[in-house]
Structure formats: C-alpha cells, structure tokens
Amino acid sequence: MTKADRDAGTEIARLIDIMAQLRDPQAGCPWDIEQDFASIAPYTIEEAHEVADAIDRQAWNELPGELGDLLLQVVFHAQMADEKGMFDFADCAAAVSNKLVFRHPHIFGNESRDKSAEQQVKDWEAIKAVERAGKAERGTLDGVALGLPALTRAVKLQNRAARVGFDWPGPADVLDKIGEETAELVEARDSLGPEALEEEFGDLLFVMANLARHLKIDPEQALRRANAKFTRRFQAIEAALAEQGRRPEDSDLAEMDRLWDQAKAAE
Fold first, then answer.
1. For residue 145, is pLDDT > 60?
2. Which range of residues forms the domain containing residue 253?
3. Structure pTM?
4. Largest CA distance in the chain
5. Could you say which of 84, 103, 122 is where a domain stops?
6. CB 93 within 8 A of CB 69
7. Can you tell me which residues the record assigns to a coiled coil (predicted)?
8. By C-alpha distance, which of 48, 61, 57, 63 is closest to 232?
C-alpha cells in the first residue's frame, strides 16, 4: 500500500480495531488481555524515551516506528478504559483538540497574533492556571506529574516556584549553592549514615537541575548525551583491546585511561 492509498483516519481506525481484537476475552492475545493501566504505564514511559532517543540520534528513518509505538500506548490505555466504560480514544483526541484550541485564542479566537513571545508565554501560563483551577489544583506545585523522570520533574517544580518569585536571581547564586551542597555531601559521607548521604546527594542533584534551568539546558538531554559519549568512548576502549585479543578485565586503569584519551582525541 502506498502513501496515497491511505489516510491518517483510516490507519488510526485500523489500529483501534486491532487493539480491540487483541483484548477480546475469547479470541484475543493472552498477554494483552492480562494487562491493566499499571502494567502498561512503564511501557508508555519507555516508548516516550525511545522517541526522544531517535530524535537525539537524528534517526529519522526509525522515528515513524517509534512514534507508532508511542501511539500504540495511547490506544492500549484507551481500549482498557473503553472496556470499563470510562472513556475511549475519541475522548482522548477530543480532549487534546479542545485544549489546543482553548490555549491558542490568538489562532482560533479573536485575540491578535501580533504579540511578543514573552507575552504569549504569560498568556499561556494564565490559561493553564484557569485549567488547573478547574481541576481543583490550588497549590503552586499541584499537577506536576509524579511519574516524570526525576530531573525533568525537578525542573518543572522549580519553574512553578519561580513563577511566584521563589528562585535564585541567576546562575552565579546557584553555583554558590552547589558548593554548599557539595560540602554537605562530603560531611555526610564522613560522619553520617547512608540515609543522610542519599538525602544530601539528592539535594545536590536538585540544585544541579536548577543550574540547568538557569542555563536553559535540558538536564535529561544533557545526561543522555553524556551517557552516549561515555558509551561511545568505552566501546572504543573495548575495540582497541579486542584488536590485541584482550578484554577490559585483562587491562588496567592506566591503560584504559590512555585508550580513553585516544578515543576522545579521535572525536
């Protein structure tokens, strides 16, 4: 089937039908039938990360498949909800469409599009505040999802607090706080127990996330790229040793450091 032979609506309807068949109590797949919201949620998070990974690697040929896997998660949750009489896929699509229209009055309403990006951000936050009020979210930090990756959630919590003035003036102040938290971590390591050590380490990570926010860096993306760099360079160490018929455990730290530096220089 060529691209001209299909359309999005048809393919989405086909996907919904397939999911319904997989969940059919008599003729469906046993694994799919056994799943519930809680068991599928980790897969939903994993698929979102795989989308981000494909984008980070600029693997554009993989992206349609990864986005399809993420779409499947939405369809899976909607099918389970439909079976319980809670909502269905159409409700999900309608909810996000309505939200987009409501949040863009300068496009779908009577407001002028002639406004600065800064003003649009302020308007956006005002609109979201109205939405949160409708959900009985009264606190500044209400509605920041618990299931987010910890670094991402830290930044979102800090952004919320910053909106009401609870924030450091600039990166220099955050760097000073990092020095303070580092000293407290060293003290905990030397004189306190494992729980206190973990707490101080968490405080340091939280402030590092705040520094990323002030520097306009996505800490999750920065760490993903650091992970990729480490993987790339360590694999170069393994490849260099393999040429000699050896493995990392046959080497020592001094040699692997030298090979690391070679891999770094080659980049």
1. yes
2. 221-266
3. 0.63
4. 71
5. 103
6. no
7. none
8. 57
